[in-house]
Design goal:
The protein has helices at residues 12-27, 41-46, 58-69, 88-110, 125-135, 164-194, 201-210, 252-259, 277-291, 323-326, 339-348, 361-371, 388-401, 403-417, 421-435, and strands at residues 3-7, 31-36, 50-53, 117-120, 139-141, 215-217, 234-236, 265-267, 295-298, 315-318, 332-335, 352-354. The protein is an alpha/beta fold. It folds into two domains: 3-239 and 419-435, Rossmann fold (3-Layer(aba) Sandwich), CATH 3.40.50.2000; 252-417, Glycogen Phosphorylase B (Rossmann fold). Helix 5 packs across helix 6 (164-194) and helix 9 packs across helix 13. It is globular and about 65 Å long.
Length: 440
Amino acid sequence: MTKILITAAGSYGDIAPYTGLGARLRTAGHEVALATHDSYAALVRAAGLEFRRLPADPRTRRAATADAENTADTADAAEPDRPSGPGGNRDLMRQAAAFIKELGGGLADAAREDTGLLLLSATTAPLGHHLAEARGIPFLDLPLVPGAPTGDFAPVVSGGRSLGRWGNRAAGRLSLRIIDRLYADASRELRARLGLPPATPRTVRRRAEAAGRPVLHGFSEVLVPRPADWRPGLHVVGNWWPWHAPDAQLPPVVEDFLAAGPPPVFLGFGSMAAGEGERLSALAAAALCRAKVRGILQSGWAGLSGGQSSADADLLTIGEVPHALLFPRMAAVVHHCGAGTAAAGVRAGVPTIPVPVTADQPFWAARLASLGVATAPIPFKELSGERAVARLSHALIQATAAPARRDHALAAAHRLAAEDGAGEVLKAVERLTETEHPAK
């Protein structure tokens, strides 16, 4: 048995997959703690894992900042809701650096003396490497998105458009340097606290690359085949999925709604679009009505709501419901295309209408469209104005009335079902604990 600490920071989609992974490791006999924000404590404990607190909770930071500035448009430091305006990129970088700096000290507090292995998300890895060095703890990087430079595609946060093989690699290297800058202050403070000699994030990253440290990526080659120009040790193992109880069922109100008519369309934006709930709810209701399909709105951080009038009989509003249970019952899914939600739609075998907002979402939206399981993406910033209802309703009709798109989705789901990403991580954990430091 190894005492494992998983560290993950950000929004729900950055955290939830690690609950399923942690539960799988616990079932195999390991003792597992997950360090993350207070907002996800109940989720962590429900999966049977020990919760350890990390600071810089995006939900509380968002609320505090919005209250201080009296605006709903404040971008989240870790998960911005929308593209920034003029000068906004500089502000976003400052916010992200502040988020990371606050995170650093909490990460050191979360790792106890008996920790035998660190499993690090993309957000926590650049800090976790210092912790592993100081305390001699073996570690594995477990990102949910591709981060290493490749000629196959541009960095996932660059909008999803290829720059050619040379341009893609150059942009990928630039992206890593930007990340190094974001972590510079936090790394300097953390190394001083841990008694380590000074070293830049770039130096530490290059040491890990030169050592051939394994990195296991938690997405499927169904969506992103492993680039041939990646170094040895960079693996694509398949998704690990958010935990839910084996006997979990959809709430009765959802089952009643499903039984009352044909399969509806799901609409949700996860942690995106805060402050846009009223506008997006009206848009969704109008588009669903025009397309003559029923809908389920997931409130999310946007606060979507279908209202209570009799005209909304074909529209249901829900809170948090496992996508693994809900999506297979849908005619199609409309969402922001975060990595986990995009994969959940493929897993369910239903067509997707991508409405990417920011960060890696345009990348995943483009991947779904190229796979034939999604309509052409509708960028969130274009989902406004007089033609927004017509555009969304047209996409709804395309997604629900084209058998070929559902056939593609079912074929992709079949391929995805053959993968066991959590099982591959378990194998790597057991290999690592056999060859490096034993459990303390």
